[in-house]
Design a protein that fits this description.
The chain is α/β, with parallel strands linked by helices and 186 residues long. The chain contains 5 helices and 8 strands; from the N terminus they run E-H-E-E-E-H-E-E-E-E-H-H-H. It is globular. The chain binds zinc ion (2 copies).
Length: 186
């Protein structure tokens, strides 16, 4: 059976990444949201979002650009970049998404900080997966969750990211399945 692009979540690397990262992220995203994922690079360059004063990239501008992308009819687009992202009211962000919208972005820049010396790669992959699901969760209309173990919990630092689980809490799972029913009429 062919998957309709309207039901696909695109993972869009900006720049070079090890391919294995997207296999892991794709599997995780598919497991949580139930939609197939595809890796397609839709943006090769984000220099338009560079802020000289902050030496960082404005994630909101990148989201705007992504949501206008008409090359694909995909349900959601998750961009993954190595550059450091910000929104004007915060020093930095791990990612941003349009609430209930189509576009989301995460940065791996600060996810490489203080990696577990025992299994650094595993620890890095786990953080990237958590942030990918978190931002896509926002794109599926989920807001921040009070439950500190829920993947939709707001993280102020990398310890918070490591501490939370890689799953939605029961409450957020119900909200997500209601949202998906709206997206995917059976
Ligand atoms: Zn968030
Ligand atoms: Zn939750």
């Amino acid at each position: 059976m062919k998957t309709l692009p309207e039901h696909t979540i695109i993972i869009s690397p900006v720049g070079d990444f090890e391919n294995s990262l997207f296999e892991i992220v794709g599997r995780k995203v598919n497991g949580i949201f139930g939609f197939p994922t595809e890796v397609i690079s839709l943006l090769s360059d984000v220099s338009f979002a560079y802020d000289h004063n902050r030496d960082q990239y404005n994630s909101t501008l990148i989201l705007k650009m992504l949501s206008k992308n008409t090359l694909t009819k995909s349900l959601k687009i998750l961009a993954v970049t190595k550059v450091d992202l910000f929104i004007p009211i915060l020093t930095y962000v791990y990612g941003e998404a349009q609430l209930g919208g189509r576009a989301a972005i995460i940065s791996t820049h600060r996810l490489e900080e203080a990696l577990s010396p025992v299994k650094p790669e595993e620890s890095f992959h786990s953080r990237v997966c958590k942030e990918a699901v978190h931002e896509l969760g926002h794109a599926f209309n989920l807001r921040h969750c009070q439950d500190s173990s829920c993947i939709m919990h707001y993280c102020r630092g990398i310890q918070d990211v490591d501490k939370k689980s890689d799953q939605l809490c029961r409450y957020c799972r119900i909200l997500l399945s209601d949202e998906i029913k709206k997206t995917k009429p059976i």
